[in-house]
Amino acid sequence: MAKSLQQIIDENPEAETFRFGDNPKLCAQIIALVRSGKKTATVEAMRAYTREGDALPEVGRRDVALNWDGSPALMLETVEVVTRKFSEMDEEFVAAQGEFRDLAHWRKAYRAYFSRTGGVSEDMEIMCERFRVVEDYA
């Protein structure tokens, strides 16, 4: 029997919940990449944590990635968190994200994403997280 989100949170009270992306299609695509093992890293604008009040990922903490409908998809454990400026992104971290051809493709995609979610600039701070899959609820 599948675990409910409430059961998962009860078992992992420190866990945060989140969705990848900003729409159902993108969320599903990213979850598929994580499940396949191609995606082991992600980024988010620091404003999501400072201005919007979300909890910053912490090394060792396990969080629940949700499907767009709010059902649990994956339990992920953070293995690294660093902040950098948008302009400081590098090819190695882009490759770990699993969804981009190269740094230029990453820049184009994240310029569009950050423009939709509050704005983008070369000196904006971004959170860069590496993670591992602990449990798949599919």
TrEMBL record:
Transmembrane segments: none annotated. Signal peptide: none annotated. This is ASCH domain protein. Pfam families: ASCH. Residues 18-135 form the ASCH domain. It comes from the Bacteria.
